[in-house]
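DUF4064 domain-containing protein, Listeria grandensis FSL F6-0971. Tokens?
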Amino acid sequence: MSRTVELILGLIGSIVGLVAGFWIVGYGNDLTDYIQTFTYLSGTFGDKVATLGWVTVIASALALFASLLIKKSPRGWGVLLVLIGILMFFVVGQIWIVSGILLILAGLMGIFRVPSPKY
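Tokens:
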């Protein structure tokens, strides 16, 4: 069964996450008040905006890796995509909406999509 939809959704979600992460790292000091509004961990990561950006970049890179390998083992990499998508909502907050939704959809499709029978 072709897993092209999961691959494309995962790639788009992880690339958008990488762009958002580098955006946070690059403009961190200028965006401190903006980021504080959107993160749920204002005491832990929220005070260090650059750290928040690097966490986003690392999670997005891991999601990119999982997206590229989702055709090999859809259930295993799908679980990882769902976990990254949900976890980053709590770490980064609302700046992760687009990436998180796409990664969660790709992961759930990888986990629950039943292969078509071969005749």
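The helical segments are 4-26, 32-38, 49-68, 74-91, 97-112.
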